[in-house]
């Protein structure tokens, strides 16, 4: 057989889907599994959005669209992105529609770095695993910047200043953050911008897909800091805000790179689904009551799960600022039950207690000195949260006795 390329062999994955396969295999065996693995809303898309898709189908909107998206969605997304970000001067021609927000991670790296040239991309660790995977696949050098628990899972801007070199071409920021739920404050973003002012060769990829799920105050984008708009790639989408993960609609804005991203889409997907694009027009322009109700529910669940987890033996959980994830510290719980690390803890919890989580190593190399963590997605019912955390507490208590 011919060999596959080194690039393909080194391509990473998103372990949430790997663990989901484990969960499904156990479920097929009749096991009762409570899963907190997948980061997607557990709500249906709003009814008026569904109806808009049906109208599009029945109206014959089945064909290709321009690679950058239909005019109606680019116009709606431009207004939406600008209104969410302090009135930035975003024009429809600055916005490109993609098949989800995820492809723009690759397009941003491909558009700002050259393969094998030694170009560097700084990205958060722990972080969405596709960042590192795509940096490596496209021949750049991944440079992790560590997030710290005592900073509510933000990074120290002084560490960023040390990491930037003349070869740094792109900084990836994600806030609210997956997997920790952490946020970057306006003050922190202003300090990051101050540092970047010394390094005009560095672009910023602002992954703001959870922008509507900030629980403490208004969302603030680094693109709003003076001097940052033209060098910031703003990435958002329909998936999290309107529970449209499977509809695959992302929208990204940059006044310089929009034509480049359009060409990448022409070379890859051709265009996003026309039906989904019309549904997204309705999502943005239509009533927002369903989106606000989902946000309120996530806030209620956040408070609920944090309280429950902090009552579990050996577990400490900070209050995340956004998204729908918590990142509890299970260092002491691992010690209590004799687990070597969070991954052993995760596997035993799944197989012995029927609770599915993700371990910190699914989101990058473990941060030195930060201990052991796991990720819960609390996009689940309060009943499932209560039952799952109770199983986890019982598992720790039972195995602590055995270890003793």
Could you give the count of β-strands? 12
Rg for CA atoms: 21 Å
Identify the CATH class of the largest domain: Alpha Beta
**Poorly predicted regions:** none
Q: Residue-averaged pLDDT, rounded?
A: 96
The proportion of residues in beta strands is: 5-15%
Give me the side-by-side strand order of the main sheet: 2-8-7-6-5-3-4
Oligomer: single chain
Distance between the termini: 53 Å
CATH topology of the largest domain: Aspartate Aminotransferase, domain 2
Give the number of helices. Answer: 14
Structural class: alpha/beta
Give the topology string: H per helix, E per strand: HHEHHEHEHEHEHEEEHHHEHHEEEH
Q: Per CATH, which architecture of the largest domain? A: 3-Layer(aba) Sandwich
